[in-house]
Amino acid sequence: MPKVVLNPNAKAKVQKKSERVTYQVESTDGEKSFEMYTRQNQMDPDAYSCCLVYHPKRGEKVTLVRYNGSNHVHLNPIEDGELIVNRCHIHRATQRYMEMGEKAEKYAETTDRYNHLYGAMLCMLEDCNISGLELPPNEPDNPYELQMSLGL
Fold first, then answer.
1. Which one-letter DSSP state was computed for residue 16?
2. What ranges in the chain are assigned the alpha helix state H?
3. What is the pLDDT of residues 83-129, one digit of tens each?
């Protein structure tokens, strides 16, 4: 489903030593509402995430995907305790975890498609069919500095 960012010039805010930017996103037909955010820890360049959250008209919001950096260990409990150790990974909402009472997006898979927030953001925009947020097309020499200058 194609989606568009409604506030591409959203400003960064510092929360708990992380810089966060929150975007309002809508399906192109205007029927579905989402929130997309980026978060970058100011002390650890590998501590970042970007996320797409669905806001239904009724009921609880659901995190659909979350693209995380490599600063921590992640455990997939249903998959025989599969561990992801300090690697970039993508969380995706699954019915299996929802039925267990876990966070919808608890399941994650490792990825080599990005290694910083800028790259994770590009992947999420492509994977989730989101337009309306223009990022430079080439990977920067120093992605952390670029992220800060873009407010990512």
1. T
2. 95-99, 117-127, 143-150
3. 788 999 999 998 988 888 888 888 899 999 999 999 999 999 999 99
Asked if 107 and 94 count as a contact pair (C-beta separation under 8 A), the reply is yes
61/113 Cα distance (integer angstroms):
27
What counts of helices (H) and strands (E) characterise the chain? 3, 11
- Tokens, residue 108: 């994650």
38 DSSP β-pair partners: 21, 50
147 vs 119: CA distance, rounded Å: 10
Q: Are 92 and 111 in contact (CB under 8 A)?
A: no
Arithmetic mean of pLDDT, 129-143: 72
The label of the residue with tokens 């876990």 reads 102
